Amino acid sequence: MSSSTPLFETIEPDDPEYEQRTSATGNIQPPPTTNTGSGNNTRPTQQMATNPGDAESGIAGILRQSAHPMVLFFLYFFRIAAIAVYILCGLFISNYVLISVIVVVLLAMDFWNCRNVAGRRLVGLRYWNQVDDDGESYWVFESRDPSRPANPIDSKMFWIAVYTFPVLWLVLLFVSFFKLNLSFVPIVVLALVFNVTNAIGFTYADRDAKQKWANNLASSGWNMGLGGIGGQILTGVVKNSVGRVFG
Predict the structure, then answer these.
(1) H helices then E strands: how many in the chain?
(2) How many CB atoms lie within 10 A of CB 17?
(3) Distance CA 74, CA 80 (A)
(4) Partners of residue 130 on adjacent β-strands
(5) Are 102 and 85 in contact (CB under 8 A)?
(6) Using an 8 Å Cβ cutoff, are 223 and 235 in contact?
(7) Tens place of pLDDT for every residue, the chain, 247 residues?
(8) Structural contact between residues 239 and 218, judged by C-beta atoms closer than 8 angstroms
(9) Orientation angle between helical segments 228-246 and 185-216, nearest 10 degrees
């Protein structure tokens, strides 16, 4: 596989003010208080969650801590809706064609949204397959500037969605074979193709971004003051080490 140089300017960073108020664990810190001249007019600070039943530990809390809550919502909405329609529509609708059309439309919308919107906004990654003039097909990856890391909640929820839903569709495929419900197998296979393609594409895009980050670190920052043979040896060691881990 080969990749082109990432176009950092095409991946929008998160809101700088939001990132300053977001800790490494994903918890949003309250905005700074302002003094109006009197000692009693300070803004009250936000109350932190005290037990797992609080909103901060639920769906509302996840969306509140997300830098892109609408993008995160639709990432899960399309995926859950496709599975829900596949499982439940058979109980209320006997029209196989209508069920198939609804599921396929939801799968197509999810595939496009995940590859072009959710991946770019939530984790700063994008990929596509390109064919050159000689007819050779290769992967192209884009990644956001590593100096602007993704929101930890967005990143965690994105990778959970990318890796969990292919497993769920695989389970549904086994169930279809077990129940001899072969008419729905093509739908499940299509869902697996869409979901696995996104999982593989974003996995390689993430590795490509980390590889480029390590190469830039080795060639610029680590070579300061270590010129000559020593710097070249250190650069080679770092590149080879990262290549074994992410290659």
Answers:
(1) 8, 2
(2) 9
(3) 10
(4) 138
(5) yes
(6) yes
(7) 444 444 444 455 555 554 444 444 444 444 454 454 444 554 444 344 444 454 456 888 899 999 999 999 999 999 999 999 999 987 888 888 999 999 999 999 999 999 999 999 999 999 988 888 888 888 888 888 777 888 999 999 999 999 999 999 999 999 999 988 888 899 999 999 999 999 999 999 988 888 877 766 666 655 555 454 544 554 555 455 544 444 4
(8) yes
(9) 170
- For tokens 């956001």, name the residue: 144
d(CA 170, CA 94): 24
CA 229 to chain centre: 40
Task: Give me 206's structure tokens.
Answer: 């993430």
Cα distance between residue 168 and residue 165, in whole Å: 5
Distance CA 103, CA 186 (A): 11
SS3 state of residue 147? coil
